[in-house]
Amino acid sequence: MSFQFWFEFASTYSYPAAMRIESLAVSQRIDIEWNAFLLGPVFKAQGWNDSPFNIYLAKGRYMWRDMERICDALSIPFRRPSVFPRNGLLATRIATRFKSSMWIPNFVRAIYRANFADDLDIGDSAVVANCLAQLGVDSDEVIATANSDESKSLLRSQNDIAAQLNIFGAPSFLANGELFWGNDRLEQAFQWLTTGEKLA
Amino acid sequence: MSFQFWFEFASTYSYPAAMRIESLAVSQRIDIEWNAFLLGPVFKAQGWNDSPFNIYLAKGRYMWRDMERICDALSIPFRRPSVFPRNGLLATRIATRFKSSMWIPNFVRAIYRANFADDLDIGDSAVVANCLAQLGVDSDEVIATANSDESKSLLRSQNDIAAQLNIFGAPSFLANGELFWGNDRLEQAFQWLTTGEKLA
Questions:
Q1: In degrees, to the nearest 5, what angle opens at C-alpha A189 toward C-alphas A184 and A193?
Q2: Whole-number percent of chain B with pLDDT over 70
Protein backbone atom coordinates (compact mmCIF):
# COMPACT_ATOMS: atom_id res chain seq x y z
CA MET A 1 0.00 0.00 0.00
CA SER A 2 1.53 3.32 -1.02
CA PHE A 3 0.28 6.86 -0.83
CA GLN A 4 2.17 9.79 -2.32
CA PHE A 5 1.30 13.44 -1.76
CA TRP A 6 2.71 15.76 -4.43
CA PHE A 7 2.59 19.44 -3.59
CA GLU A 8 4.08 22.78 -4.65
CA PHE A 9 4.60 25.53 -2.10
CA ALA A 10 3.17 28.26 -4.32
CA SER A 11 0.05 26.24 -5.16
CA THR A 12 -3.08 27.59 -3.53
CA TYR A 13 -5.06 24.35 -3.44
CA SER A 14 -2.02 22.49 -2.07
CA TYR A 15 -2.33 24.61 1.08
CA PRO A 16 -5.59 23.14 2.48
CA ALA A 17 -4.46 19.68 1.34
CA ALA A 18 -1.19 20.02 3.26
CA MET A 19 -2.98 21.29 6.36
CA ARG A 20 -5.47 18.44 6.56
CA ILE A 21 -3.75 15.41 5.02
CA GLU A 22 -1.89 14.15 8.07
CA SER A 23 -4.81 14.01 10.50
CA LEU A 24 -6.92 12.26 7.85
CA ALA A 25 -4.14 9.78 7.13
CA VAL A 26 -3.48 9.02 10.78
CA SER A 27 -7.16 8.29 11.42
CA GLN A 28 -7.05 5.78 8.55
CA ARG A 29 -3.58 4.43 9.45
CA ILE A 30 -2.14 5.46 6.09
CA ASP A 31 1.54 6.36 5.71
CA ILE A 32 2.15 9.33 3.48
CA GLU A 33 5.17 9.97 1.29
CA TRP A 34 5.65 13.76 1.13
CA ASN A 35 6.80 14.87 -2.32
CA ALA A 36 7.50 18.53 -2.91
CA PHE A 37 8.03 19.50 -6.54
CA LEU A 38 8.03 22.59 -8.76
CA LEU A 39 5.09 23.40 -11.01
CA GLY A 40 7.13 25.92 -13.01
CA PRO A 41 8.76 23.36 -15.34
CA VAL A 42 5.42 21.53 -15.68
CA PHE A 43 3.67 24.74 -16.69
CA LYS A 44 6.52 25.72 -19.01
CA ALA A 45 6.10 22.41 -20.85
CA GLN A 46 2.48 23.44 -21.41
CA GLY A 47 3.51 26.81 -22.80
CA TRP A 48 2.79 28.87 -19.65
CA ASN A 49 5.30 31.29 -18.15
CA ASP A 50 3.08 32.15 -15.21
CA SER A 51 0.42 30.50 -13.06
CA PRO A 52 -2.65 29.71 -15.18
CA PHE A 53 -4.60 31.56 -12.48
CA ASN A 54 -2.78 34.72 -13.52
CA ILE A 55 -3.04 33.98 -17.24
CA TYR A 56 -6.76 33.12 -17.21
CA LEU A 57 -8.40 35.95 -15.28
CA ALA A 58 -11.89 34.56 -14.73
CA LYS A 59 -10.42 31.28 -13.53
CA GLY A 60 -8.06 33.13 -11.21
CA ARG A 61 -10.80 35.29 -9.76
CA TYR A 62 -12.88 32.19 -9.11
CA MET A 63 -9.95 30.39 -7.47
CA TRP A 64 -9.35 33.15 -4.90
CA ARG A 65 -13.00 33.15 -3.94
CA ASP A 66 -13.03 29.35 -3.81
CA MET A 67 -9.98 29.39 -1.53
CA GLU A 68 -11.81 31.72 0.88
CA ARG A 69 -14.76 29.32 0.99
CA ILE A 70 -12.59 26.22 1.40
CA CYS A 71 -10.39 27.64 4.16
CA ASP A 72 -13.43 29.06 5.91
CA ALA A 73 -15.13 25.64 5.86
CA LEU A 74 -11.96 24.01 7.23
CA SER A 75 -11.31 26.82 9.75
CA ILE A 76 -7.85 27.38 8.27
CA PRO A 77 -6.53 30.95 8.27
CA PHE A 78 -6.21 32.41 4.79
CA ARG A 79 -4.93 35.71 3.46
CA ARG A 80 -4.50 36.19 -0.27
CA PRO A 81 -0.72 36.56 -0.78
CA SER A 82 0.29 40.01 -2.00
CA VAL A 83 2.62 38.25 -4.46
CA PHE A 84 1.47 35.19 -6.40
CA PRO A 85 2.94 32.77 -7.18
CA ARG A 86 5.77 33.00 -4.63
CA ASN A 87 9.17 31.43 -5.16
CA GLY A 88 9.26 28.13 -3.27
CA LEU A 89 12.59 26.92 -4.66
CA LEU A 90 14.59 26.83 -1.41
CA ALA A 91 11.73 25.32 0.59
CA THR A 92 11.25 22.69 -2.13
CA ARG A 93 14.93 21.78 -2.13
CA ILE A 94 14.75 21.35 1.64
CA ALA A 95 11.58 19.27 1.52
CA THR A 96 13.13 17.07 -1.16
CA ARG A 97 16.51 16.62 0.44
CA PHE A 98 15.12 15.99 3.93
CA LYS A 99 12.04 14.11 2.73
CA SER A 100 12.31 11.33 5.30
CA SER A 101 13.05 13.55 8.31
CA MET A 102 10.53 13.55 11.13
CA TRP A 103 10.14 17.33 10.99
CA ILE A 104 9.13 17.52 7.30
CA PRO A 105 5.32 17.57 7.74
CA ASN A 106 5.63 20.41 10.26
CA PHE A 107 8.07 22.24 8.00
CA VAL A 108 5.72 21.92 5.03
CA ARG A 109 2.82 23.31 7.06
CA ALA A 110 4.98 26.15 8.40
CA ILE A 111 5.93 27.23 4.88
CA TYR A 112 2.31 27.07 3.71
CA ARG A 113 1.18 29.12 6.68
CA ALA A 114 3.89 31.70 5.96
CA ASN A 115 2.73 31.99 2.34
CA PHE A 116 -1.05 31.76 2.64
CA ALA A 117 -1.86 32.88 6.18
CA ASP A 118 0.90 35.36 7.07
CA ASP A 119 1.68 36.71 3.58
CA LEU A 120 5.42 36.27 4.03
CA ASP A 121 7.94 35.89 1.22
CA ILE A 122 8.82 32.19 1.32
CA GLY A 123 11.48 32.89 -1.31
CA ASP A 124 13.39 34.81 1.37
CA SER A 125 15.85 32.48 3.12
CA ALA A 126 15.29 34.34 6.41
CA VAL A 127 11.62 33.36 6.33
CA VAL A 128 12.54 29.76 5.57
CA ALA A 129 15.17 29.79 8.32
CA ASN A 130 12.56 31.03 10.76
CA CYS A 131 10.21 28.17 9.81
CA LEU A 132 13.03 25.69 10.46
CA ALA A 133 14.06 27.33 13.73
CA GLN A 134 10.48 27.06 15.05
CA LEU A 135 10.86 23.30 14.71
CA GLY A 136 14.16 23.20 16.55
CA VAL A 137 16.05 22.37 13.37
CA ASP A 138 19.52 23.80 12.67
CA SER A 139 18.49 26.16 9.90
CA ASP A 140 22.00 27.14 8.77
CA GLU A 141 23.01 23.55 8.24
CA VAL A 142 19.79 22.56 6.52
CA ILE A 143 19.84 25.54 4.16
CA ALA A 144 23.49 25.01 3.26
CA THR A 145 22.82 21.34 2.50
CA ALA A 146 19.70 22.23 0.49
CA ASN A 147 21.71 24.64 -1.66
CA SER A 148 24.40 22.08 -2.51
CA ASP A 149 24.76 20.78 -6.05
CA GLU A 150 23.67 17.39 -4.86
CA SER A 151 20.40 18.76 -3.52
CA LYS A 152 19.78 20.79 -6.68
CA SER A 153 20.27 17.68 -8.75
CA LEU A 154 17.98 15.71 -6.44
CA LEU A 155 15.18 18.21 -7.03
CA ARG A 156 15.63 18.02 -10.78
CA SER A 157 15.24 14.25 -10.56
CA GLN A 158 12.19 14.69 -8.35
CA ASN A 159 10.62 16.90 -11.00
CA ASP A 160 11.45 14.36 -13.71
CA ILE A 161 9.61 11.73 -11.69
CA ALA A 162 6.58 14.01 -11.42
CA ALA A 163 6.56 14.36 -15.21
CA GLN A 164 6.92 10.59 -15.68
CA LEU A 165 3.94 10.09 -13.37
CA ASN A 166 1.91 12.41 -15.64
CA ILE A 167 1.45 14.90 -12.83
CA PHE A 168 0.20 18.14 -14.37
CA GLY A 169 -0.95 20.13 -11.34
CA ALA A 170 -0.94 20.31 -7.57
CA PRO A 171 -1.90 18.92 -5.22
CA SER A 172 -1.77 15.43 -6.72
CA PHE A 173 -2.14 12.13 -4.94
CA LEU A 174 -0.95 8.70 -6.06
CA ALA A 175 -2.85 5.95 -4.31
CA ASN A 176 -1.24 2.63 -5.21
CA GLY A 177 -0.19 4.30 -8.46
CA GLU A 178 -3.63 5.75 -9.26
CA LEU A 179 -3.51 9.51 -9.89
CA PHE A 180 -5.93 11.95 -8.26
CA TRP A 181 -5.68 15.70 -8.76
CA GLY A 182 -6.95 18.41 -6.47
CA ASN A 183 -7.55 19.05 -2.78
CA ASP A 184 -11.16 17.97 -3.26
CA ARG A 185 -10.05 14.49 -4.33
CA LEU A 186 -8.06 13.69 -1.20
CA GLU A 187 -10.82 11.58 0.38
CA GLN A 188 -11.35 9.65 -2.85
CA ALA A 189 -7.64 9.02 -3.14
CA PHE A 190 -7.52 7.55 0.37
CA GLN A 191 -10.60 5.48 -0.40
CA TRP A 192 -8.88 4.10 -3.49
CA LEU A 193 -6.43 2.26 -1.26
CA THR A 194 -9.22 -0.01 -0.04
CA THR A 195 -11.70 -0.06 -2.96
CA GLY A 196 -9.41 0.57 -5.93
CA GLU A 197 -9.38 -2.96 -7.23
CA LYS A 198 -12.83 -2.41 -8.71
CA LEU A 199 -11.64 -0.36 -11.68
CA ALA A 200 -7.98 -1.35 -11.72
CA MET B 1 -33.63 31.86 -3.96
CA SER B 2 -32.18 31.12 -7.39
CA PHE B 3 -30.13 28.26 -8.73
CA GLN B 4 -28.68 28.24 -12.23
CA PHE B 5 -27.07 25.23 -13.90
CA TRP B 6 -24.76 26.15 -16.78
CA PHE B 7 -23.74 23.26 -18.99
CA GLU B 8 -22.19 22.52 -22.40
CA PHE B 9 -23.17 19.38 -24.29
CA ALA B 10 -19.59 18.51 -25.26
CA SER B 11 -18.30 18.95 -21.71
CA THR B 12 -17.39 15.68 -20.06
CA TYR B 13 -17.88 16.78 -16.45
CA SER B 14 -21.23 18.35 -17.34
CA TYR B 15 -22.52 14.86 -18.12
CA PRO B 16 -22.56 13.44 -14.56
CA ALA B 17 -23.80 16.82 -13.29
CA ALA B 18 -26.72 16.77 -15.74
CA MET B 19 -27.59 13.19 -14.85
CA ARG B 20 -27.76 13.74 -11.12
CA ILE B 21 -28.79 17.37 -10.61
CA GLU B 22 -32.55 16.98 -10.81
CA SER B 23 -32.96 14.22 -8.25
CA LEU B 24 -30.69 16.11 -5.84
CA ALA B 25 -32.63 19.33 -6.40
CA VAL B 26 -36.03 17.69 -5.96
CA SER B 27 -34.98 16.13 -2.65
CA GLN B 28 -34.01 19.61 -1.44
CA ARG B 29 -36.98 21.39 -3.05
CA ILE B 30 -34.73 23.56 -5.20
CA ASP B 31 -35.88 24.85 -8.58
CA ILE B 32 -33.20 24.71 -11.25
CA GLU B 33 -32.79 27.06 -14.18
CA TRP B 34 -31.26 25.03 -17.02
CA ASN B 35 -28.77 27.10 -19.03
CA ALA B 36 -27.07 25.53 -22.00
CA PHE B 37 -24.18 27.51 -23.47
CA LEU B 38 -21.17 27.05 -25.73
CA LEU B 39 -17.67 26.74 -24.33
CA GLY B 40 -16.08 27.36 -27.75
CA PRO B 41 -16.27 31.19 -27.55
CA VAL B 42 -15.15 31.09 -23.89
CA PHE B 43 -12.12 29.00 -24.79
CA LYS B 44 -11.37 31.14 -27.85
CA ALA B 45 -11.23 34.21 -25.60
CA GLN B 46 -8.54 32.36 -23.61
CA GLY B 47 -6.57 31.60 -26.77
CA TRP B 48 -7.64 27.97 -27.18
CA ASN B 49 -8.97 26.57 -30.46
CA ASP B 50 -9.70 23.16 -29.01
CA SER B 51 -10.71 21.64 -25.70
CA PRO B 52 -7.95 22.16 -23.12
CA PHE B 53 -8.19 18.40 -22.55
CA ASN B 54 -6.92 17.91 -26.10
CA ILE B 55 -4.33 20.68 -25.87
CA TYR B 56 -2.87 19.56 -22.51
CA LEU B 57 -2.26 15.84 -22.91
CA ALA B 58 -1.55 14.82 -19.30
CA LYS B 59 -4.63 16.72 -18.15
CA GLY B 60 -6.74 15.09 -20.84
CA ARG B 61 -5.50 11.61 -20.01
CA TYR B 62 -6.32 12.20 -16.36
CA MET B 63 -9.79 13.53 -17.18
CA TRP B 64 -10.81 10.40 -19.13
CA ARG B 65 -9.71 8.17 -16.28
CA ASP B 66 -11.45 10.43 -13.78
CA MET B 67 -14.67 10.25 -15.82
CA GLU B 68 -14.55 6.45 -15.68
CA ARG B 69 -14.20 6.56 -11.90
CA ILE B 70 -16.95 9.16 -11.45
CA CYS B 71 -19.48 7.44 -13.70
CA ASP B 72 -18.67 4.10 -12.14
CA ALA B 73 -19.28 5.52 -8.65
CA LEU B 74 -22.60 7.02 -9.80
CA SER B 75 -23.58 3.92 -11.83
CA ILE B 76 -23.96 6.05 -14.96
CA PRO B 77 -23.05 4.40 -18.27
CA PHE B 78 -19.96 5.90 -19.86
CA ARG B 79 -18.14 5.27 -23.11
CA ARG B 80 -15.37 7.60 -24.19
CA PRO B 81 -16.69 9.35 -27.33
CA SER B 82 -14.78 8.46 -30.48
CA VAL B 83 -14.87 12.17 -31.37
CA PHE B 84 -14.17 14.82 -28.74
CA PRO B 85 -15.38 17.47 -28.36
CA ARG B 86 -18.59 16.91 -30.32
CA ASN B 87 -20.58 19.72 -31.92
CA GLY B 88 -23.49 20.56 -29.61
CA LEU B 89 -24.63 23.67 -31.48
CA LEU B 90 -28.10 22.48 -32.55
CA ALA B 91 -28.84 20.88 -29.19
CA THR B 92 -27.69 24.06 -27.42
CA ARG B 93 -29.94 26.23 -29.59
CA ILE B 94 -32.86 23.96 -28.75
CA ALA B 95 -32.11 23.94 -25.02
CA THR B 96 -31.81 27.73 -25.05
CA ARG B 97 -34.91 28.45 -27.11
CA PHE B 98 -37.10 25.97 -25.25
CA LYS B 99 -35.49 26.55 -21.86
CA SER B 100 -38.77 26.71 -19.96
CA SER B 101 -40.42 23.71 -21.60
CA MET B 102 -41.30 20.78 -19.39
CA TRP B 103 -39.33 18.35 -21.56
CA ILE B 104 -35.98 20.20 -21.38
CA PRO B 105 -34.40 18.21 -18.49
CA ASN B 106 -35.21 14.94 -20.27
CA PHE B 107 -33.94 16.34 -23.55
CA VAL B 108 -30.66 17.45 -21.94
CA ARG B 109 -30.11 14.01 -20.44
CA ALA B 110 -30.98 12.30 -23.75
CA ILE B 111 -28.33 14.37 -25.57
CA TYR B 112 -25.72 13.65 -22.90
CA ARG B 113 -26.49 9.93 -23.03
CA ALA B 114 -26.17 9.99 -26.83
CA ASN B 115 -22.75 11.66 -26.58
CA PHE B 116 -21.21 9.97 -23.55
CA ALA B 117 -22.95 6.61 -23.27
CA ASP B 118 -23.91 5.69 -26.84
CA ASP B 119 -21.07 7.46 -28.71
CA LEU B 120 -23.48 9.08 -31.17
CA ASP B 121 -22.79 12.25 -33.15
CA ILE B 122 -24.93 14.85 -31.39
CA GLY B 123 -23.99 17.29 -34.15
CA ASP B 124 -26.11 15.20 -36.52
CA SER B 125 -29.67 16.57 -36.62
CA ALA B 126 -31.04 13.03 -37.05
CA VAL B 127 -29.56 12.09 -33.66
CA VAL B 128 -31.03 15.23 -32.09
CA ALA B 129 -34.39 14.55 -33.77
CA ASN B 130 -34.38 11.06 -32.33
CA CYS B 131 -33.74 12.43 -28.81
CA LEU B 132 -36.73 14.76 -29.24
CA ALA B 133 -38.97 12.07 -30.70
CA GLN B 134 -38.29 9.82 -27.69
CA LEU B 135 -39.87 12.53 -25.55
CA GLY B 136 -42.95 12.82 -27.75
CA VAL B 137 -41.86 16.25 -28.99
CA ASP B 138 -42.43 17.33 -32.60
CA SER B 139 -38.81 17.24 -33.71
CA ASP B 140 -39.30 18.88 -37.11
CA GLU B 141 -40.96 21.91 -35.60
CA VAL B 142 -38.49 22.23 -32.72
CA ILE B 143 -35.44 21.94 -34.97
CA ALA B 144 -36.82 24.45 -37.48
CA THR B 145 -37.51 26.93 -34.68
CA ALA B 146 -34.07 26.33 -33.15
CA ASN B 147 -32.40 27.11 -36.48
CA SER B 148 -34.23 30.42 -36.93
CA ASP B 149 -32.32 33.70 -36.79
CA GLU B 150 -34.16 34.55 -33.61
CA SER B 151 -32.92 31.40 -31.89
CA LYS B 152 -29.36 31.92 -33.12
CA SER B 153 -29.42 35.43 -31.73
CA LEU B 154 -30.87 34.15 -28.44
CA LEU B 155 -27.95 31.75 -28.04
CA ARG B 156 -25.44 34.53 -28.71
CA SER B 157 -27.06 36.54 -25.93
CA GLN B 158 -27.00 33.50 -23.66
CA ASN B 159 -23.26 33.17 -24.24
CA ASP B 160 -22.78 36.88 -23.54
CA ILE B 161 -24.53 36.39 -20.20
CA ALA B 162 -22.21 33.48 -19.38
CA ALA B 163 -19.21 35.72 -20.04
CA GLN B 164 -20.70 38.52 -17.90
CA LEU B 165 -21.15 36.02 -15.07
CA ASN B 166 -17.42 35.19 -15.33
CA ILE B 167 -18.21 31.61 -16.27
CA PHE B 168 -15.01 30.05 -17.63
CA GLY B 169 -15.85 26.34 -17.69
CA ALA B 170 -18.62 23.78 -17.41
CA PRO B 171 -20.50 22.69 -15.49
CA SER B 172 -20.96 25.87 -13.49
CA PHE B 173 -23.55 26.62 -10.85
CA LEU B 174 -24.81 29.98 -9.64
CA ALA B 175 -26.36 29.73 -6.21
CA ASN B 176 -27.95 33.08 -5.36
CA GLY B 177 -25.31 34.61 -7.62
CA GLU B 178 -22.35 32.74 -6.09
CA LEU B 179 -20.30 30.87 -8.69
CA PHE B 180 -19.25 27.23 -8.29
CA TRP B 181 -17.36 25.33 -10.97
CA GLY B 182 -17.26 21.60 -11.52
CA ASN B 183 -19.45 18.56 -11.04
CA ASP B 184 -17.75 17.95 -7.69
CA ARG B 185 -19.04 21.30 -6.38
CA LEU B 186 -22.72 20.61 -6.98
CA GLU B 187 -23.45 19.70 -3.36
CA GLN B 188 -21.61 22.76 -2.07
CA ALA B 189 -23.52 24.97 -4.49
CA PHE B 190 -26.85 23.64 -3.21
CA GLN B 191 -25.65 24.09 0.36
CA TRP B 192 -24.80 27.69 -0.39
CA LEU B 193 -28.50 28.46 -0.78
CA THR B 194 -29.00 27.86 2.93
CA THR B 195 -25.60 28.71 4.47
CA GLY B 196 -24.22 31.23 2.00
CA GLU B 197 -24.82 34.31 4.12
CA LYS B 198 -21.75 33.42 6.17
CA LEU B 199 -19.22 34.64 3.62
CA ALA B 200 -21.49 36.86 1.51
A1: 160
A2: 98
